[in-house]
Amino acid sequence: MSTTTSLKLPDALKATIAQVAAFEGKTSHALMVETLQTAMEDALARQQFYVDGEAAYQDTLRTNKAYRNEDVKAYIVARVRGDKPTRPRPVPFDPAKPMAQA
Q: What angle do CA 15, 28, 34 make, to 5 degrees?
């Protein structure tokens, strides 16, 4: 079901919307709906990214295991070369220490 929403747009924005919509062969309304839908999908994906990151951080705190960046990088590079390296070993996680630059 659709509902009507009123937006007060600055004249310059309204003109830009009309110009872009005309170029894309759409109505201004269709362009605005599509743009809002895309923006909301992006916002939801960003929110999920933060939720997933927090869950991963909490899991790291719970397990007290982390991996050194240089160990992971060496492992991945070796795998790409076709080698069969041993997996990196986890190290204790210290949340008080700043994270190393990648």
A: 125
| Alpha-carbon distances of 97 from 13, 68, 94, rounded to whole Å | 47, 13, 6
As a whole number of Å, the CA-based R_g of the chain is 24
- Reported as a single tens digit per residue, the pLDDT across 4-13 is 999 999 999 9
The rounded distance, in Å, linking the Cα atoms of 32 and 7 is: 11
Residue type, 3: T
Specify the residue for token string 């960003």: 46
The pTM of the full predicted model, rounded to 2 decimals, is 0.69
User: Any residues with CB less than 8 A from the CB of 18 and at least 6 apart, and which?
Assistant: 28
